[in-house]
Amino acid sequence: MKRWIILLVLPLPLFLVDCSNKKKGMLLLPFLGLGDGATQANTASANNGNGTFTVVGLETTDPGQVATPETNSGDGETNNAETPSVVTPTPAAPPTPAPTTVNNETTTTVVDQTNGGDFNFETNITVPVTVVIVNESGPVTNAPVTVTESITTGEPNVVGVGTTDGNGSVTIPISVPPTVVSVDISIIGVNPTTGEVEEIVGSAPIQQPATGTGSEGTVVVAPVVNVDTTNFQPVNGCVQAVDSDCDGIANNFDEFPDDPSLATVARSGRYTIAFEDMFPSAGDADLNDHSTVFSTEMDKTPSNKVKTIRGTYTHVAKGAGYNHELRLSLDVPTNATVQVSYLDGQGNPWNGCASASKYTANTAGDCTGGTLTAAQLKRGVLILPSSDKTLFGKKNAPSAGSTFTINDFVRGVTAQVTITFEEPIDLNATKNLVGGHLNYFLAINQKTDGVFRQIYRPGYFKDASGKDAFLDKNGFPWAIIVPGVFNHPTEGADIRNQSTSGYIFFNSWMNSNGVAHKDWYLHIDQIPAANRPSYVVRVSDFYSDNGFTAYLIKAVRKNAFEVSASLIVVGAALGFLMKRKMGNPKAA
């Protein structure tokens, strides 16, 4: 009997660290935990030395590499010259080299997260981060500042960029999940005595421990980072060794290092948007009538404007008799090209969108995409069509106490949407973002005054009295966005009812206006009382990607060559072995 030894060669890209000039980590990443919140205050506190700032040499540079910046950053902003040119310094006696020194003092102010008094049930933390830089001569102007965090994806994720003004100051608004308690700051400049480009790096808190009797957890704070330097000034030009496209974003943060019109990719990580569909009635607050798991990416210019939005949306619950469609409204002053494709629950192309009923009038691009005008974008881009097509019947929302296993779980249709604006846009110029998320809404097959009803998240619209139009009389929303894959309540289980809710800290979070138990969605009552039914559908146990699938999803744009090569190598190896075995039927 012959013995077969099969050597399985795993594709290397699955396990490689990204060794490019980006500050990246491993591509396959675990989930991370959260911290609690606590009561609010409206005080400022000095936090001296929090996040010590240090100086890092990026790489060996030469003053002769300094070039005049390029003209166009791709979003209507013009620099000095069309083509980067190398500046030859005038020969002079070299100054005595001296090191760059840096000291910092960080102050923080507690931020009101209640949207002007109404708690809007946002889980993300939205704060401004201010950086002020001075040297021995005064304010440091035109210094590029980058703010990153590494919790969402496990690697540095750029959440904002900016350039210091004439006062040496820049304020960068950011929005991050409650997992993030501090952000990293990077400032690029040059040591004038050596001519070498340097990076000042440190961190700043955006949450800090609450103070006062009986307080626990953290409060949200806006940091002001005062950085005092010597022998540090702006580059005032472009060192192509560290900024290949001269767009003001150093290569170690620039995801488009050869394209001056683009700089960074903002990645949301995975979230779930869940709706209660009885609007304008309060409904049963089970948040399972329409639930979608999604993630987005935004390609941004060096001035923080958005050129392209990419999103993936998977329908996972329809605990309702109504049918609904999920749309995205964008209030922007430009046209956009929309691309959309659909996959069924098994990952095969799905062509059922065209035959699905539509509940938003006078729309363009539904199911097919195309070029949409600003008015059509505001009316709403179709993400998922009628829910009776994308998740058949009353799925993934069982009655309390009923047996529900992975065999009962139905993975609905997935939409893959790309929106590319003709001109980069500032999403904050008009209200396109609340809590860091876009303006998704639900259109229902029920009419009020002859018009199909639409449901929005809180924070976008107020009624004539100034009250948020999408909070009910008890201040509860018809829609909520939760980090990760949300384990929604069973049918009819009010998430606020302690006796019929698996979420033991939801009320604490809600009643504290979102500052206590920010991680409420991770705490499910694991040990119910005797004969107590289950009130939560554990979607996260059923909705999972294996490592290779996760890598393919993450790498589809950046590492397409490596992925393709890996698949070809594996396929060829298995094909060769099978051919050998089939050609020798006696082989054991």
TrEMBL record:
Bias regions of kind Low complexity — which residues?
Answer: 81-90
Q: DUF4842 domain: which residues?
A: 304-521
UniProt keyword annotation of Membrane present = yes
Q: Where is the composition biased (Polar residues)?
A: 68-80
Which UniProt key words apply to this protein? Answer: Membrane, Transmembrane, Transmembrane helix
The UniProt annotation puts the region (Disordered) at 62-104
So which domain of life are we looking at? Bacteria
InterPro entries reported for this sequence: DUF4842, LruC_dom
Q: Does the keyword Repressor apply?
A: no
TM stretches of this protein: 560-578
Mind telling me which NCBIfam families this protein's record contains? LruC_dom
This protein is called: LruC domain-containing protein
- The record lists the organism as Leptospira bouyouniensis
